[in-house]
Design brief:
398 residues; Rossmann fold; five-stranded parallel β-sheet; 15 helices; 19 strands; 34% helix
Length: 398
């Protein structure tokens, strides 16, 4: 699977107090591997200096359409030709009005009108300005013109009023921009994912669990959503927030996870078992806290149902993807699990580096052999994994 070339963003900054957040957005976009060229309006330069944006992007900032330095003399066109998308953040009420009416009386509005690539805007303004009939008309016009509108958010505003109109936080914007570029490979498909650990009670306060954080499973849910799927995320206890748009089902024990999966598996196209499910549970958990004594304590453990094996064995199973965290002989154990559970695809990872960490390395095992997804953050790996699943899924149902 080849890495996509870096996306090129033309980041337009207009004159509102949220302009200071554009610096953080620029940093986050570059951290995601995007190439960013910044263009600022005259008003934006009163809130944040081009020097800051140049320092972060490593490129001179575009501020004037009368710039004679542009090789082809087309300062109002060329930068948009070199971009995969233009992002305006923050987009003031005034700039949104310009876009809606096709005005091109400064560099940034000219670049937007002359563009041949998608346009994304992140509105930022006082709540009354946002609610005004004129702004709502302009936003409706932008949506009708195919412009992507990101936000705004609700909350405390710089002016001291509270309501709708705040620009989305830089982290959320960076995530939405990355999601915009994901291929919509799973449109119309329903994907059921298990994630996190399970907790098997010993008594009222103690239990058996493991160190799975849920990060890998939640990243896969996020990537599946970005690629157009409807996602049901069945999760054991974790500290993570569910990805926006996922239907979350919280469970504690393996038995509860099994029941939730049975409830949702009926109409799903793909099942991905990322959860670290306890293989055993205590046969007779005590309702009261067990008292300490000098004698040894023996717990009787009984096997839990294997959720993945059950789903893969259904008469008309969804496309099943299993995971295996191994501490040694990854290839041998992963292939064994794939055969025993009769899976078209199994994802192997080394337990020591996978559990709880932000980064991972995956090895994909299927009928064609094995394929390594080298070390990266879990969301990057999840996006690549979903692209691999899309190919296999398509092949399996041709
Ligand atoms: O949550 P993180 O901190 O990000 O860590 C991610 C992870 C390491 C937990 C994840 O990447 C991973 O490897 N999950 C599988 C853990 C494992 O080794 O599972 P297993 O070998 O016990 O089971 C193999 C497969 O069967 C898994 O898909 C599992 O979900 C499934 N299974 C297992 C037992 C059981 N009773 N029911 C199941 O469905």
């Amino acid at each position: 699977m080849e890495q996509e070339p870096a996306k090129r963003i033309l980041l337009g900054v207009t004159g509102g107090i949220a302009a200071y957040k554009a610096a953080e957005l620029l940093r986050l976009l570059m951290k995601q591997g995007m190439e960013v060229q910044v263009a600022m309006t005259e008003a934006a330069c009163r809130f944040i200096t081009p020097t800051t944006m140049q320092g972060l992007s490593g490129k001179p900032v575009l501020t004037s359409q009368w710039d004679t330095g542009m090789a082809d003399g087309m300062a109002h066109i060329s930068p948009s030709r070199a971009a995969d998308a233009i992002v305006i953040a923050p987009a003031t009420a005034d700039f949104i009005a310009k876009l809606a009416h096709g005005l091109a009386n400064d560099l940034l509005s000219s670049l937007c009108l002359a563009r041949n690539c998608p346009l994304l805007v992140a509105p930022a303004m006082n709540r009354e300005m946002w609610q005004s009939a004129a702004t709502q008309r302009n936003i409706a016009q932008l949506l009708a013109d195919g412009v992507q509108v990101l936000g705004p958010d609700c909350g405390m505003q710089a002016c001291g009023e509270e309501g709708m109109g705040r620009m989305l936080e830089a982290g959320r914007l960076a995530q939405d921009i990355a999601a915009f570029f994901q291929p919509k490979l799973f449109s119309g498909k329903k994907i059921l994912i298990t994630a996190g650990p399970t907790y098997e009670a010993i008594d009222a306060v103690r239990g058996i669990t493991n160190r799975s954080s849920g990060k890998m499973g939640y990243a896969i849910a996020q990537a599946a959503l970005e690629q157009g799927a409807e996602v049901v995320l069945v999760s054991g206890p974790t500290a993570l927030a569910k990805p926006r748009g996922a239907q979350g089902v919280d469970v504690v024990s393996a038995a509860q996870m099994f029941e939730a999966v049975q409830q949702h598996v009926g109409d799903c196209d793909i099942f991905i078992g990322v959860a670290a499910v306890a293989d055993y549970r205590v046969a007779q958990p005590s309702e009261q806290k067990i008292k300490k004594s000098a004698a040894a304590l023996t717990l009787e453990l009984v096997p839990n149902p294997d959720i993945l094996a059950h789903v893969a064995g259904l008469p008309d199973p969804p496309f099943c993807v299993g995971f295996a965290a191994e501490s040694e002989d990854l290839a041998k154990h992963a292939e064994q699990k794939r055969c025993v559970k009769n899976l078209p695809l199994l994802v192997g990872n080394l337990a020591q580096q996978a559990i709880g960490s932000d980064e991972n390395e995956l090895v994909l095992f299927d009928d064609s052999g094995s394929h390594v997804l080298p070390r990266a953050d879990k969301l990057t790996l999840a996006r690549l994994l979903m692209q691999h699943i899309a190919q296999r899924y398509e092949g399996a149902y041709k």
